[in-house]
């Protein structure tokens, strides 16, 4: 899979599209569409870095098929899952008050989950 197919898959995962990505990165939409259509294995590094930052993914994601599994694991020992990345990205958009509200609610959910587990085992 080339960079274009990988980019297309990531856009689908993130629920976005080439036009939105172009707007976020200030890269011409025609460039984004060209990358996807041609599915090249080479893209200008500055363009790729802008894309990765906007989509919150590592550059390595585009070259994983060329890496051994041990290289991938060595580069990403504590890699967050997609839903964890998404949650973190959303959390970072909140102000301090909103973050505290989310943390309090998350703690309540964890506490309820622990109580439920204890009731089930007791």
Describe the structure.
The longest helix has 26 residues. The chain is mainly alpha-helical and 122 residues long. Helix 1 packs across helix 3 and helix 2 packs across helix 3. The radius of gyration is 19 Å and the shape is elongated.
Summarize the structure in short:
It is built from seven helices and no strands. With 122 residues, the protein is mostly helical.
Give the biggest beta sheet: none
In whole angstroms, the N-to-C terminal distance is: 51 Å
Instruction: Kindly state the percentage of residues in helix.
Output: 55-70%
Q: What is the alpha-carbon Rg in Å?
A: 19 Å
Strand content: under 5%
Compute the number of helices. Answer: 7
Number of strands: 0
How do the helices and strands follow one another from N- to C-terminus?
A: HHHHHHH
Which key features would you list for this structure?
single chain, 122 residues, elongated
Write the layout of secondary structure elements.
Elements: H1 3-14, H2 18-25, H3 29-38, H4 45-55, H5 69-75, H6 82-92, H7 96-121
Helix pairs in contact: 1-3, 2-3
